[in-house]
Structure formats: C-alpha cells, structure tokens
Amino acid sequence: MPKGKGPQGKRITLKVAKNSVRVAFNGRRRLDLSKMGIATFPKCILELADVEELDLSRNMLRKIPNIIEKFQNLMWLDLHSNQLDELPAAIGTLKNLTYLNLCNNKLTTKGLPEELTRLRNLRTLNLGLNCLETIPTTLGTLRELIELGLFDNSLTLIPKSVKKLPKIERMNVKRNPLPEFAKEEEPIDTVKRIESLYLVEKKDLCNSCLEMCQGERDELHKLEDVTPGPSNKPSFPSLTTPNSTAIDNQEEWRMK
C-alpha cells in the first residue's frame, strides 16, 4: 500500500491558482478551485491568502488544515460537496466570514468545533446533507444569522437558542426526523370539487369551448347509463356547463 491513504487527486500549482482568481459581481476577488478533483488542501494557495472569497466546492477534500487561518480577509467560503467529517478549530479565526457553505459533506456533531461560534458576523450557514444528530446549543450565539440550512440530517431536536436567533429569516429543517414534522398526512381527496357553476347558452360559446363542454356532457351521460338514479330529473337542452372559471374569461370565448 503506497504511503497515504485515499485518492491523491489533482495537484494544483500556484500558476493554476493565480489563473483561477476572478473578480465577483460584488467586486471581491474570488479564488475558484471548484470541480478541480482536489483531494488535499493545496498549500500553494497561501500565496493568495488575501482573497475575499474562496470556492473549494465539489472536490474530494477530507480535511481542511488549520492554515485556513491565513485567509483573514475571507468573507465567503464554499466547501460544499466534499468528504469533510470535521472542521478545524482555526475556522473560528475567520472573523470577517459572512457566508459558509458546508452542505453535502460527512460532518458529524462531534466534527463541529466550538470555535465555530466565534464567527459573529456569519449571516448564512449551510449544514444540510450531513450526518448531524444534534445541533450545538452554542450556535445560538451566532446572532447575525439570517439563513440556516439543516436539511437532510438526523436531527430530532432544534435547540431553542437556535430557533430564537434574533435575525433568522430562513431555516430549512426538511427531511429530518423531527417530532413536529411527524404528523399524519391528510388523505388525498381524489374527487374534484366545484365551488361555483355557471350556466350559459350554447350561442354564447365559441366552437372549441362548445365541443369541449359537449364532450364532457357525453361522458356524464355514459356514467348515468351505468348508475341508477331518479328518472324525473329536470332537463335544460339549451344550456351547457363550462368550467368554473368561464365567467372570468367570458370576453375571450363569447362569440362576437
């Protein structure tokens, strides 16, 4: 077995990294190394540690080293769709971070360091599609959070401190075994209900609407032939029944 387990991945050179720097719409410099087949954090990018945004998503990263602390200007960090099962304590030194995407990794509750709560400027945190069974109550100290993604985990409880975050606007907890979402599904009503019925004369319908209504009436007559019922029902031979929205669109189908 060769030294070092797991995939080696693509080797990123400083030249490749420099050519991957882009200016985002917001004017920030973004180092975009997404979808590069990287399995090991490339140390050469420390030469570009002054960027404001770093995208390492859709790679094969198993670990983020503590040297991430060199990126003190980072405001935006995307690590989604890797193989991470834990975060380094140094993540808490990125005090300017407002966006952190950790979706679709292998993070466990144990893999979330306490230092994560030092990101006091964080506004968006995505922890969806991981292996979390609980959420640390200390996440309630991230009082600037506006968006929090917790979907597709194994959570059975959301701490009150997290639920009551003062600025939270969107919290996605879908597809977790939470008791409040274990309500019995309502039965599906397969019968179409009509709230209103409008009657019009045949002469007021265009040809296509008339054909449609006559077709539906023929279908009803077929049902009447196999369903017993009273024989003294009233008949309105000069009237037909368009759908319930016909009155709203009558100017379109009324014959001129």
UniProtKB/TrEMBL annotation:
Keyword Chloroplast among record annotations: no
UniProt keywords, alphabetically: Leucine-rich repeat, Repeat
One Gene Ontology cellular component: cytoplasm
Highest taxon above the source species: Eukaryota
Matches recorded under InterPro entries: Leu-rich_rpt (IPR001611), Leu-rich_rpt_typical-subtyp (IPR003591), LRR_dom_sf (IPR032675), LRR_domain-containing (IPR050216)
Keyword Nucleotidyltransferase on entry: no
Composition bias, Polar residues: 229-248
Annotated segments matching region Disordered: 223-256
Matches recorded under SMART domains: LRR_TYP
PANTHER family named among the record's database cross-references: LEUCINE-RICH REPEAT-CONTAINING PROTEIN 18-LIKE, PTHR48051
Protein name as it appears in the record: LRC18 protein
Organism classification: Eukaryota, Metazoa, Chordata, Craniata, Vertebrata
